[in-house]
Amino acid sequence: MNSVETQAPGGVIIKTVTGSLTGKLIMLAVFVILAILPFVLPDKFWIRQVNQIMIYALLAMSLDVLLGYTGLLSFMHNAYLGIGAYITGLFLIHVAPESLWLAMAVGAVCTTLIALPVGWVQVRTGGLAFALLTLAFGMMFYTVAWKWYDVTGGDDGLMGLPQPDITLFGLKLASSGDSTAMYMFTLAILVMCFLFTWRVIHSPLGAVLEAIRENEQRAAFVGINVRAYKLIGWMLACGLAGIAGSVYILFRGYTGPGVMGAFEGAGVLMMVLLGGMGTLWGPLIGAAIFIIMKDQLSSFTEDWEIFVGIIVILLVLFLPRGVAGLPDLFRRGKAE
Amino acid sequence: MSQATLLTTKDLSKHFDGVMAVNLVNLEVTDQEVHSIIGPNGAGKTTLINVITGLLAASEGSVTYQGQDITTKPVHERVRLGICRTFQITSIFMGLTVYENVRIAAQSHLGGSLRIMSPRGGLKRVNAKTEQILERVGLTHVAGRQAELLAHGDQRVLEVAISLASEPQVLLLDEPAAGMSPAETDQMSELIAALGTEMAVLLVEHDMEVVMAISQRITVLHQGGVIARGTPEEIASDQQVREAYLGGDDWAVLTA
Questions:
Q1: Is A17 within 8 Å of chain B by CB?
Q2: Which of A325, A186, A13, A167 is nearest to B98 (CA)?
C-alpha cells in the first residue's frame, strides 16, 4: 500500500493512502507500456488476450469499489457486465448500428438504472444477506438472458452485431472490428474509468464509503445515511461494470448468457482477492494473473479449475492482501 | 438560571421476548447539565440509551426532542438533529487514522460528502473543526496514528471526540471511563464535566466517585424502571437506592 505523510494546515501530520508519487509513476508506466504493446507485439492472439484482460480489469476494479471500499460482497458482479453487454448489443442491432458512443452511454445508463431497484432492496439488508441477494439477483438476470429467446437469443446469444466505427468528435478513427483499434479503445476506456474511480475514491465520498466499511454502526452514529451511501457505491460499481460490458460486446462482437454465470462471478471475486482489495490498482493485476493462469492451465489440462482453486487457496492463506500486500512483506522483512 | 429541557422520554419501554429491559421510563434531559443514569448490572441503562438513540426500536412510549417526536426516526437523522453517543464497547473506525476518524464525523455534520472532485483533505471547514476537536481532547499528537494502534484510554477519548465533531446538543456517554486507569478516568471526568456546561450530557457510569462528583442530576434504574431521581445528595441518602444496591461495592462509595 502506498502511504504518504502530508502536512495538514494545522501542522498535523496525516498519514494518507492516496498514493505516493512512486505509485503514480508506476501506474503511468504501466499504461504507457500497454499503449505501446500492440505495436511491438506481432501476434494478434496476444493483443486480444491483453484486450480481454483489460476488460476484466475494469470489471474487477468496479467490484473493488464495493468489496474493498464499501465493504460489500457481491458474488455476481459479472451480471452487470452482462447487462451492459446485452443492452449495448441490442441498441447497436435494433436502434443505431453506427452510434458507438451512444450505445456505450445507453449501456452504462441502463445498467445503472437496472441496478437501482436491485440495490435499493439489497442495502436494506447487511452482511451475508446482502451477499446472498447479489447471488439471487445475479441468477435471475442470468436466467432472463438465457431464457428470453426472442430478445437475447437465448443459449445462442446475441449474434450479428454490427461493428461501428470508433469516432472522436465526428472524426472516424478506425473500425471497432480492427483488433489494434479495439485494443486502444479498450485501453482508453480503462484509463478514463480508472482515473474517474480513483478521483471519486479519494474524494470525501470515498471517505464515507471507507467509514461504512470500517464500522457501519459508527458511520450511522456520525450521521451518515448508510443505506443511501451504500446505494451510491453499488450504483457506481454497477455502472462501471456496465461500461466493461459495452466494451466486452464490442470486443467480442457477440455475447451469450455464459458470461453472466455464477462461476464467472466467482472468477471476478478471485481477481479482486488475488490483486488485493481496497487499492483499485490491485484488481487490475489480479485480472491479469487470473486470466493468464486460466489460459495457461487450460492448455495443459481440462480440469484447470482444480488448479486455479489450489493456487487461490494458497494465495489467500499466504498472501491474504493479494499482490498489493507484497510490498508490506518486504517492508516487514527489512524491519525485522 | 432556567435551563431548557432538550429531550424527554414518556413511558418509554423496551421488551425482549417478555423481559422488560426498559419499563415505562420517564426522563427529562436538560441543557447544560450532566445527568447520570445509575443502577446495578442489568438495570437497563444501556438498553435505555439504545432506544433513545434509535439503535433499538421502542416497544412502547415516545422520545421527544425539542418538541419533535423522534421515536421512530433512524439513527443518522437523530445524529443530524444533535443526539450523539459513545458505546460501552469502543466503537471507532479502527482502520483509519485518528484524524480521519474525527474528520469523517465533521464532514458528515458540515457537509461536502458528495464533492467527488475535491480531495479528502480539501474541505477547509471540516479540517478546521477536526483540528479544533483533536486539540480540545488532547489527541493532536497522535492525529496521524491508526486508531487501532492507540492505547485503550486514547481510543475511549477518540470516541468522545468523534461524537463532538457532530456538534451534539445531547451527548449520551455509555461508560466512557470503562477500563481506564485512575489518571485517565480523572481526565475523562474533567472533560465530561466541561462538556456538561455546554450541552446536555446523559452519562451511564459505574464509577460512583465520578458520578457523584460531576452529575447535577441522577436517575436510578432498577429492573428497567426508575426507582429514584434527584441530586447526588438526595440519591446518596435514598432508602430505595440503598436496597437496590444492597451488598454491592458501589454502595460503599455512595455513602462514603
A1: no
A2: A13
